[in-house]
Amino acid sequence: MSPAFPPDQEARDRILRELDTTLLVEAAAGTGKTTMLVSRMTALVATGKCSVDTLAAVTFTRKAAAELRGRFSAELKKKAKAAEGEERELLAAAVARAERCFIGTIHSFCARLLRERPVEAGVDVSFVDLDEDADLILREEAWEEFVAGLFAADPPDPVLERLAAAGLEIGQLKETFLHFADYPDVEEWPAGEAGPADLKGVRKALEGYLRHIHTLLPFPDDKGTDKLMGRYEQIERTARHRDLSQTAALMELLEIFGVKHGATQKCWPGKTRQAKPEIARWEAFREEVAAPALARCREMRYGAVIPVLRAAVDVYDRMRQERGALNYQDLLMKAARLLRESPAVRAYFRRRFTHLLVDEFQDTDPLQAEVVLYLTAGDVREQDWRQCRPVPGSLFVVGDPKQSIYRFRRADIATYQMVKGTIVESGGAVVTLETNFRTTPSLIEWGNSIFDEVFPAEADLYSPAAHRMLPGKKEAAGAPFAGLRVITVPDEGSTNEAAALYDSGLIARTIRRALDEGRASPGDFLIVTWRKARLHLYADALQRLGVPHRVTGGSDWGQVGELGLLARCLRALVEPENPVALAAVLRGELFGIDDAELYAFRRAGGRLSFNATVPKEMPDAETAARFEDAFGRLRRCAGWLRVMSPVAALERTAADLGLILRALLSPGGDGRAGTIGKAFTVLRQAQRELHSAAELADFLEEMIAGQREFDGLPARAAGEDLVRVMNLHKVKGLEAPVVFLADPGGKSRQAPSLHIDRTGGVTRGYLTVREKSGPYSWKTLAQPAGWETFEDKEESCEDKEEN
Questions:
Q1: Alpha-carbon distance 174 to 309, whole Å?
Q2: d(CA 179, CA 183)
Q3: Average of per-residue pLDDT across 552-580
Q4: Most confidently modeled of 25-34, 315-324, 433-442, 684-693?
Q5: Which listed site, 30, 146, 157, 795, has its alpha carbon 20 to 30 Å from 168?
Q6: Measured on CA atoms in the order 406, 410, 413, 417, is the torsion positive or negative?
Q7: Which residues, 6+ apart, have CB-to-CB distance to 471 below 8 Å?
Q8: Please, which residues bridge with residue 399 across strands?
Q9: Local structure of residue 289 (DSSP, 8 states)
Q10: What is the pLDDT of residue 557?
């Protein structure tokens, strides 16, 4: 039961009372921030401060916008019924015109600004918005065109030679390019000169170490728990097969020295007398030779890489311009430039939108902040957004800096702190909501103890301050699942996978038991993992126990076996003379031809092509009929590919082969069939940029390989009672009576890969060039000079993002 007046009631009253004051509301989860946002919007209309036509509310997602729109409309109607006099007239007018209030994402808002004034903005009046999926496809196409151009040049472009001299291949830069293209607003990427690093002394020191290792070999086969001897053997093997005059080979060997190493002294042939000097030798070489040399090489490479990335972005920019397409960053940048460079246009929009409310402000990136401050600034001629001061009461923002976890989407806590300072300096105020109405007191206290450890006592440019929440309701005594429960993983769950298997099984059994005992329904449960990779383990555990569920935010299309079967079939169709592709389809679950039958087919002179004739000499008529059926169906599907669009043909193929029905009839079939439907939606979007069925096959295989994210969808209508299973970054704004924080394994900290410096007049960017070396690990290929100083600055932000 909630108290009659929460402890922070005065702050809530200020939000509704101080309508002519610019406010930033810092509100933690569960404190009723959306309610206060809706109440502020209604109060502005009810008091005549603005009309719904001049009111705009910006949200983080389309889903949040739809919810806010519904709640605002309902609140207007409720208040209009209870009001009297002029207030009643104002609210009744607002109810009649509620649809004219802009409520949407910042990107849709910027698109509206550009479409209202396209000439001044310099955009095509019929420009197309690129969503994230379509934009990624276009980036990849731009990269492929850029790389093809390098190789097609006659003679080959010197870029390739410069990269080769730095020990890099062009293909290693693709992932960095995709990330680099997210930051068109960064004005400078300081890189220095790409001159060669002097590595003669390093090679000499390494050769001396190798000679020393040779004097120790061979080591005993049984090394016990010691790992340093194995590391020495790895170094010796690697050096034996590498040309150390080549930069890439030298760096590969030096990177083996990248970890601090101890040794199990009793396992060495000479015991402590031999092991201790080897530990000291390893550490000295690592710190004095390997680490400095790697840094020099990476800095040298960085100077070669940045011009390449810039050139690739030029291709990407040209392709968007040719197609009249604007991605999310284009919408923001062009809207900001329109407002910055045209005082008349800014004055127009200042009248058009007199009051701007922004939700989830901690997720605002710098370009969004720029647009917001230009729109609300009193001086329409001020071109430096950092100097803009909002008209009193024109801006109302809500955010929780502790939830600023979307740096990978360009959100920047430093920008949040900067805007916060601007609001205060312009006569506005910061209001804090502390009372949590969603969570029980025991969970609030637990959360406070975690925040006290993670956040500093005082806020700085890169981290918010720890701020304790207050309980807004009493503990639910005797209620099922009330309070905090901890799952302890036994010793045998020592690996991340084993821990998740144990964890998922225990959670599934707990939910199953609660359902069987009638204590809860499936929709009462929410399972949240901090990584996407093991979502399927939790789905599988629920599926085995017959618990209805839905997975959101995964990237493992391969968990839907029917998609894998369809991809293998498509590969065989687009490569009709590829015997390996056809054999994979025939031996799979679609046709179920076993190895003995395939061997008999080949012995009878059969050719592995579905356009071939099945030999009459087949010893078994039933087996021959199965080959005839398989070949006939594949020929029919190939015919559809010739006369229909590739995705339409693929959908017809899936239906003809019974894959959708197979998915529906399997355990968890609703979600499996729905995910197949989502896959076709993604493929239809991709088809605009794909030029052949072969490219479609490549794209589908990339999806199944986990290179593209998806949300599982049900095949039937929404509203079904389901356990929700999702990744942390998909859970934003959701709640449930019972929440499992799942998947306990994995590192909680990773080195930062990007630093954007906006503290001066020029925005500068610095990043590491990396390639994936494992499921959750990356190898640094290049980095800017002095990168260690940025690592120190970014550490706290990165920790929060990973956690």
A1: 9
A2: 8
A3: 77
A4: 315-324
A5: 795
A6: negative
A7: 435, 436, 439, 440, 441, 444
A8: 26
A9: I
A10: 59
In angstroms, rounded to a whole number, what is the distance separating the alpha carbons of residues 210 and 666? Answer: 58
Q: Give helix 33-46 / helix 9-17 axis angle, nearest 10°.
A: 30
Q: How do 429-433 and 23-27 pair as beta strands? A: parallel
Amino acid, single-letter form, for residue 79: K
Written as one letter, the residue type at 241 is H
Lookup result for tokens 């034996």: 240
**What is the rounded radius of gyration, in angstroms, for the C-alpha atoms of the chain?**
31
Per-residue pLDDT tens over the stretch 597-626: 887 888 788 888 899 899 888 888 888 998
Tokens representing 516? 């069987």
3-state DSSP call for residue 126? Answer: coil
Q: Yes or no: say if 722 and 523 are a contact pair by the CB < 8 Å rule.
A: yes
Distance of alpha carbon 450 from alpha carbon 80, whole angstroms: 44
Alpha carbons 139 and 601: distance in angstroms, whole number: 45
Centroid of chain to Cα 768 = 18
Give me the pLDDT at residue 747, please. 54
Q: What is the DSSP letter of 36?
A: H
What is the C-alpha separation between 21 and 118, in angstroms, rounded? Answer: 33
Residue 378, token pair as written in the block: 């009193």
If you search the block for the tokens 């810092």, which residue do you land on? 26
> Quick count: other Cβ atoms within 10 Å of Cβ 400?
21
- Beta strands 754-757 and 764-767, pairing class: antiparallel
* Residue among 324, 272, 278, 294 at smallest CA distance from 128: 324
Digit-coded pLDDT (tens) for 147-168: 988 887 777 788 888 888 888 8
Query: What distance, in Å, lies between the first and last C-alpha atoms of the chain?
Result: 32
**DSSP 3-state assignment of 611?**
coil
Q: CA-to-CA distance for 174 and 487, rounded, in angstroms?
A: 41
Please tell me the distance from the alpha carbon of residue 417 to that of residue 464, in angstroms, as a whole number.
8
As a whole number of angstroms, the distance between CA 747 and CA 449 comes to 21
- Longest Cα–Cα distance in the chain: 98
Spatial CA neighbour of 623 closest among 603, 638, 643, 641: 603
The whole-angstrom separation of Cα 455 and Cα 402 is 8
**Coil vs helix vs strand at 127:** coil
CA 52 and chain centroid, separation:
35
Q: What gap in Å lies between CA 236 and CA 258, rounded to an integer?
A: 16
